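lol ok so funny story. i was supposed to be doing the assay writeup but got distracted and ended up predicting the structure for this chain instead. priorities right. anyway since i did it might as well share w the group, maybe its usefull for someone
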Amino acid sequence: MKAADAMIRPLVTVGPRDFARHAEGLMDDFGLTMLPVVDGNVFLAVVTKAGCRGGGDSPKVEQVMSQPALTVGPEFDVATLFEAMTRYEVLCVPVLDDGQVIGMVTRLDVLRAISHDDPHLRVGHAAEHG
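and the output, tada:
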């Protein structure tokens, strides 16, 4: 299974000149801890919930955004992605295609994708054989 199969759509993004409190509100609304920052269609960075809170009097996103620890392409293997997310202790990874963000993958998305692919990890199977 590939990152494109597990990523969140539709994608929620913010611009660099948006207020950090707006980004934090979007993260609250959609249950996210990170949002991609885009200018037009070009991926710039990410903004995290912690970054928004640490900025004081609601700065602009460009003042609190940072480079993500990981980014992947749409064809990246989900099992390998989970290992990398665990190693780098990240909860969410942007999926990029030619410099444009096309999705985000969370650890929960990866676990769902892996369990959906593996019949031994399905809840019904565990209940039958547990």
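The radius of gyration is 16 Å. Residues 124-130 have pLDDT under 50 and may be disordered.
back to the writeup now i swear
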